[in-house]
Amino acid sequence: MSLAGLRIVLVEPAGPINVGAIARVMKNFGLHHLVLVNPQCDPLSAEALMMAVHAQEILESAVLVATLPEALHGCVRAIATTGRFRSLQTPLEKPRTALPWLLEEPEKPAALIFGREDRGLSNEELNYAQRFVCIPTSQDYLILNLATAVAICCYELSQCAEQPDSQTLPQTELAPIDVVEAYYEQLESLLLKIGYVYPHTAASRMEKFRQLYNRAHLKPGEVAMLRGILQQVEWAVKNQRDGENL
Predict the structure, then answer these.
(1) Distance in angstroms (rounded) separating the CA atoms of residues 172 and 66
(2) b/e string for 63-93 if b means 16 or more Cβ within 10 A?
(3) What's the CA gap between 20 and 47, in Å, rounded?
(4) What is the chain's alpha carbon radius of gyration, rounded to the nearest angstrom?
(5) Span 41-69, pLDDT tens digits
(6) Alpha helices for the chain (secondary structure H)
(7) What values do phi and psi take at 168, rounded to 5?
(8) For residues 23 and 25, what is the distance between their CA atoms, to the nearest angstrom?
(9) What is the pTM of this model?
(10) What percent of the chain stands above pLDDT 90?
């Protein structure tokens, strides 16, 4: 199994020392693609470069983007880390259980997403992931440092990568995340038009649709089929309304 296509995504990291330490631990375990979403610090500051030690090239090649969807562009799999229990039905998993899934399509980009040091990821940001990881810690002190959390996950990923390919599950070609997001946008627009959801309920209802489709692990052809259905419904609604206006 290969780590070549895996992105470590940090959302709005605020501490240059943390960012530098993350670059160092990524190199320790054979990961090289760092993506920073709207960083709140300079990843090339003296503090960050000092902490990176011999992994300064990871900081220098890090991709900076404004939003999480930009960071996930082209990815087919994404796991988000969270330290809190979600009110949704999607279960929280341990890293050792969930992370091998990121490597099942080694030729396709995948992402492991980490949130802010002080408050993690928002519900809206968590919606972009298909699975969720929580690192179990002692009840005496639950909160992990960001760089420590990245280190634990990078270690688990490196252990996954050492497993022979024969031990992996059969690969399933998943639809890219940005393709599925376009479907969600089309679905929400249609549901608003027909009155199935309202502006004040759309976000919570779309969360439930995301959970449903994430469990289905949609393939590219299936997303195309679903979008075709929506287009036909939109056409039928428009023609019905046009007929009523004659």
Answers:
(1) 30
(2) eebeebeebbeebbbbbbbbbeebeeebebe
(3) 7
(4) 20
(5) 999 999 999 999 999 999 999 999 999 99
(6) 16-28, 46-52, 56-60, 68-71, 95-98, 123-126, 146-161, 177-193, 202-216, 220-244
(7) -85, 160
(8) 6
(9) 0.86
(10) 74
